[in-house]
Amino acid sequence: MTTPDSQTFNKDQSTQEQYFTPNLSGRYKWDTVFASFTWLAVGLSVVILAVLLISVVWDGFPRLASDFWGFLTNFPSRKPEQAGLLSALVGTVWVMITVAIFAFPIGVGAGVYLEEFATDNWFTKLIEVNINNLAGVPSIIYGLLGLQLFVRFLEPMTGGRSILSGALTLALLILPIIIVGTREALRAVPDSIRQAGFALGATRWQVIWDQVFPIAIPGILTGTILALSRAIGETAPLITIGALTFISFLPENLQSQFTVLPIQIYNWVSRPQAGFHTNAAAGIIILMVVLLAMNGLAIFLRNKFQKRG
Amino acid sequence: MTTQSVWGSPSNPQPQPSIFSLENVGVTYHGTPAIQGVTMDIYQNQITGFIGPSGCGKSSLLRCFNRLNSLIPDTQVMGRITFHGQELKQMNPVSLRRRIGMVFQRPNPFPKSIYHNIAVGLRVNHYNGNIDERVEQSLAAVGLWEEVKNKLHHNALELSGGQQQRLCIARTLALNPEVILMDEPTSSLDPISAGRIDDLLMAMKRHYTIIIVTHNLKQAALISDRVAFFNVETIPNRNHVGRLVEYAPTLDIFVHPSQPATWEYVIPGSRYAG
Questions:
Q1: What residue of B is the nearest CA neighbor of A116?
Q2: Residue B39: what pLDDT?
Q3: Which of A1, B81, B96, B180 could be bridged to B88 by S-S, CB 3.0 to 4.6 A?
């Protein structure tokens, strides 16, 4: 069957050569054009980031250098040189821990269900599309939801404009991101590993716990911490639910009123006095350091678990 | 279809008792049949080889025996399979899969220590014996113990492909199965590693029933007692579907097959295989 084909093929070969027009210089030119374009894209973003960082450090460093400890341990004040972000920093820590406690188990659980247990039908597809869309909903919408649901409707439980209300709102905000991240981490685990587990007589849960999780956990943790880094910078939903901007006490429990770093920074930026603008820049530096520390933790955890695996 | 040969099977002249019995078995993916109408018996303590061109559904059929198809979305198994006379569909798949082990085409050790690879199967099945001992026995059974006894806690992925595949066989043997399903277990290995596994299978069949899917006709001819040849047929709505063409003792299949399709598949192949 193949013999006549290959004969005509061989006969054609001598005439075929003329149709190949290498045009090497033209192809290499496109290489160069495309490489320069991508280089430009990287260069531009690095420059913008560098300018941003330098200007913030330039503005805020004097405040940190003159009284670093005071800036961290003072409550807000009417005098810019005495104002600190103690209540905001502590509020941020409280809120983030609460967010993690709620969002991590629910998000990872939902991701595991959708990826490992759910059968592929129209209902799970509907849930999937919705979760992907929720990840892109503007955060202020979550603020409005939180205001109605947690601050007003569930006030007896949450205590109104409290840490708990704020944390639950932010947890809702980052839940889709954690779910999507978890699913991607699980999907990256090769199916051959699952089949090997099942073929040994393991149940679904045993396969997930013994084989799938150890491989997926670095990815799940990275996704979760990146989602938390998004939550730490959110201002709009917390302002919507009514987090205060001037707080001169530390939260006592989850029902306490609170403020967080981005709100404190927002408040200082909107003041007319130049001293507060310096404080705002210094506050941004602190927020960035906290963010970097969280991302560093993500990298540390990922490497630690990968080595063990 | 099972023609009684005048030559008989050289290694097993007496027919063994049947362990699996298939009646009109088929598998469909997304409603499209991959293989249809398979009726055959699998005999105890024999190596049964499944051969045939790609896409004839022999791997799909193999996965019916440990009900692994039920884990693949949109896959349905039709017909009736009995295991020791009991209907497979009514047995618990988890306990079934301990008794019917499986080795896959590509070595798929868990990315953990060599020791863990064997111990985990024992642990998930709540093995009450001495796990250390069982690990050693299983590794020794596949001839891997001497090679790895000083690095039991190294990652299994550090082993060569052939060693990984033997580890996968060891982890299956550790569970004391009756049947071992093998889906082209040597196709991703070099000839020397593949040869070691062939030798191992020959030695194993005294204790186990083995069903092996293979594209390597030489392997099928060398190690199996009976061979089933599957072929792809085009059915009216232009779908391709696999069918069992001939099932007979190995010598019959390779020396005087009764079906022309078997002849075409086996004879040119056997020329290359020498």
A1: B71
A2: 93
A3: B81
**d(Cα A85, Cα A76) in Å, to the nearest integer?**
6
pLDDT at residue B15 in the model: 66
Residue A1 has pLDDT above 50, yes or no: no
Q: What is the number of domains present in chain B?
A: 1
Asked if residue B6 belongs to a domain, the reply is no
Give domain A72-308's CATH number out of 1.10.3720.10, 2.60.120.10, 3.40.50.720, 1.20.1250.20.
Answer: 1.10.3720.10
pLDDT in tens, A224-233: 988 998 899 8
Q: Identify the residue whose tokens are 């277990």.
A: B185
- Supply the mean pLDDT for chain A: 87
| A52 neighbors A250 (Cβ within 8 angstroms) | no
Q: Verify whether the Cβ–Cβ distance A199 to B98 is below 8 Å.
A: no
Q: How many other CB atoms sit within 10 Å of the CB of residue A130?
A: 11
Asked if the structure places residue B12 within a domain, the reply is: no
Domain that holds residue B116: 18-273
Mean pLDDT split into 10-residue runs, chain B, 274 residues: 42 71 92 90 93 89 92 88 91 92 92 93 92 93 90 92 92 93 90 88 89 91 93 80 91 88 75 46
Give B94's contacts in chain A (Cβ within 8 Å).
201-203
Report the percent of chain A where pLDDT is more than 90.
43
Distances, alpha carbon B57 to alpha carbons A85, A104, B35, in Å: 68, 43, 5
CB contact under 8 Å between B101 and A199, yes or no, is: yes
Q: How many Å apart are CA A36 and CA B209, to the nearest integer?
A: 63
Q: How many CB atoms lie within 10 A of CB A179?
A: 29
Contact check, Cβ <8 Å, B112/A192: no
Helix-strand-coil percent breakdown of chain B, rounded to 5? Answer: 40, 30, 35
A168: pLDDT confidence band, cut at 50, 70 and 90?
Answer: very high
- Phi first, then psi, for residue B245 (nearest 5°) are -95, -45
Domain annotation covers residue B173: yes
Q: Give contacts of B 193-252 with A, CB under 8 A.
A: none
With beta carbons under 8 A apart, name residues in chain B contacting A206.
124
Q: Chain B within 8 Å of A195 (Cβ-Cβ)?
A: yes
Taking the whole predicted model, whether its pTM rises above 0.90 is answered as: no
Selecting from A194, A200, A203 the residue whose C-beta is nearest the C-beta of B175 gives A200
Distance (Å, rounded) from C-alpha B245 to C-alpha B231? 6
The minimal CB distance from B94 to the residues A119, A190, A201 is found for A201
B1 falls within a domain: no
Residues facing B38 on adjacent strands: B25
Residue A214 forms contact with B (CB below 8 Å): yes
- For A25-41, what is the mean pLDDT? 94
Q: Is the dihedral of CA A159, A161, A164, A168 positive or negative?
A: positive
Q: Compute the count of residue pairs across chains A and B with CB atoms less than 8 Å apart.
A: 70
For B64, name the nearest residue in chain A, comparing CA atoms only: A199
Q: What is the ipTM of this complex?
A: 0.86
Instruction: Give the CA count within 13 Å in the CB-facing half-sphere of A55.
Output: 7
Task: Check: CB of residue A244 under 8 Å from CB of residue A258.
Answer: yes
Chain B CB contacts of A203 under 8 Å are 94, 124
B68, B109, B121: residue with CB nearest A195 = B68
